[in-house]
Amino acid sequence: MESIRRQNPQAALMSLEAEASARGGFACLFSTADEYETALITERRAQGRYTQHRSYWPFVLFVGCALIVTGTVLLFA
Prior knowledge:
Largest sheet: none
Order of helices and strands: HHHH
Oligomer: single chain
Helix content: over 70%
Radius of gyration: 33 Å
Number of helices: 4
Strand content: under 5%
């Protein structure tokens, strides 16, 4: 802060303008969180992350449990 006071006003103004333009590079591309989330979901859908994968494990586990229950009933009947 002390160094800014010692500089002439023109140099201080140029320094502030350079600092403001440097910060502008880090600005967010989206104005709201909804825009960001929409773009994120669209990108993830394009990558195929939200597709349904068919899994047969629940069916296999059901058949296995049914066989175990049937075997237990036949064993103790």
